[in-house]
Design a protein that fits this description.
Radius of gyration: 21 Å
Largest sheet: 3 strands, mixed
Order of helices and strands: HHHHHEHHEEEEEHEEHHHH
Shape: globular
Number of strands: 8
Length: 376
């Protein structure tokens, strides 16, 4: 790929997102139903945005991660999709990550299996404090670290939360065995699954509480170094994807705020003429400017990126995006709190993204472990 290839591909994704996805997500008070989600997934596969199998190579999300132009495409595509639907972007991001792990493990999944496969990137809580990062950075784990990691990825002992389209049929997740992370590709029928309502945000998806049944499936192992390397790459892609999706959601929010400010009048003049509104719009612009610079800086071959650098960017940028989403709501005044207006859902979606995969509060301890800060 070169710059022109990337531009043309992203133009095509932008058109697809603006015409097809946005039309299905046009009413924020009525989330897309599973029929619409399935149809859009089929169209994304035909477009090449989502891979059709693990055997055939193409140009789809997270299929090529060691080419800077492909990385720009990966981040840009997720941002375009999130600009139309945050929940759908997250679902397709996790589907693409499931394929990436399956390819690495040598598993064969056809198009039907891939469309309904999902990935859970972390354990049942946080990022295992500093223990996970310490093991990833050094390959060594103390007895206390082993105990924590075994508990954190104890799929039989603890239920795990997942947000996904209701039609998923299998998932891929990491488990801790002996001294390393292993992987399971497990069918829904082999799991204990409780489906709940959508949570605080991401209304297009359902919330699931999932636990594995003892002896229900076998794990696939890599050697210790390969195990660490795969999980580091996975976390890099997960954090990058969440940043790109958050930026795309705020792209939509910026448009909502500016469009409203140019038609709503107060005191006989458009509210965009009021300094308070101008300041709120500037806050949104500043957050998007930071997102633009961050994503451009991170659009490099995955091997060149440091996991700690990406985690630190997420810890910095995610709260900024949430604050900007709140400003989108404030620009709208009272109507911004109404479900049919759009800003209310935007804020809930960005709050949910901020909490996923450890959230931004656990990242500080993760960074301490990654940088070699030892526990007392």
């Amino acid at each position: 790929m070169d710059i022109e290839d990337t531009r043309q591909l992203l133009d095509a994704v932008g058109s697809f997102a603006g015409e097809r996805i946005a039309s299905c997500a046009a009413r924020p008070e009525h989330p897309m139903d599973i029929t619409q989600v399935e149809q859009l997934g089929l169209e994304a596969g035909e477009l090449g945005l989502l891979a059709q199998s693990t055997a055939e190579a193409g140009i789809s999300i997270w299929e090529h991660v060691e080419d800077e132009h492909a990385m720009a495409f990966n981040l840009g595509a997720l941002r375009h999709i999130a600009g139309a639907s945050t929940g759908l972007a997250l679902a397709w991001h996790r589907q693409a990550l499931a394929r990436a792990v399956a390819v690495e493990m040598g598993w064969t999944l056809d198009s039907g299996q891939l469309r309904r496969a999902h990935l859970i990137p972390t354990g049942h809580y946080g990022l295992a404090r500093i223990s996970l990062a310490s093991w990833l950075a050094t390959g060594r784990a103390s007895p206390e670290d082993h105990s924590l990691l075994a508990d954190w990825l104890g799929r039989n002992d603890h239920a795990t939360q997942m947000y996904a389209p209701s039609n998923w049929r299998s998932l891929i997740w990491p488990v801790w065995q002996r001294d390393r992370i292993s992987w399971q590709h497990i069918e829904r029928s082999a799991l204990t699954v409780d489906m709940g309502k959508p949570q605080h945000g991401l209304d297009e998806l359902r919330g699931f509480t999932i636990a594995s049944r003892a002896g229900a499936t076998q794990t696939a192992d890599l050697d210790a170094d390969a195990s660490r390397s795969l999980y580091i790459r996975l976390l890099k892609m997960e954090f990058l994807g969440l940043l790109a999706i958050g930026a795309g959601a705020l792209d939509r929010g910026q448009k909502l705020a500016r469009d409203y400010a140019t038609i709503r009048k107060q005191g006989g003049k458009l509210i965009i003429c009021h300094p308070a509104v101008q300041q709120m719009l500037s806050d949104i612009d500043i957050a998007l400017g930071q997102a633009d610079m961050t994503l451009r800086a991170l659009a490099r071959p995955l091997a060149e990126l440091d996991l700690g650098e990406i985690a630190a960017c997420r810890a910095t940028l995610s709260p900024l995006l949430c604050q900007a989403a709140n400003q989108v709501m404030q620009v709208h005044g009272g109507i911004g709190y109404m479900r049919d207006a759009g800003p209310e859902k935007l804020l809930r979606d960005l709050n949910m993204l901020r909490l996923l995969s450890g959230g931004t509060r656990e990242i500080h301890l993760f960074l301490a472990g990654w940088k070699g800060v030892l526990p007392c």
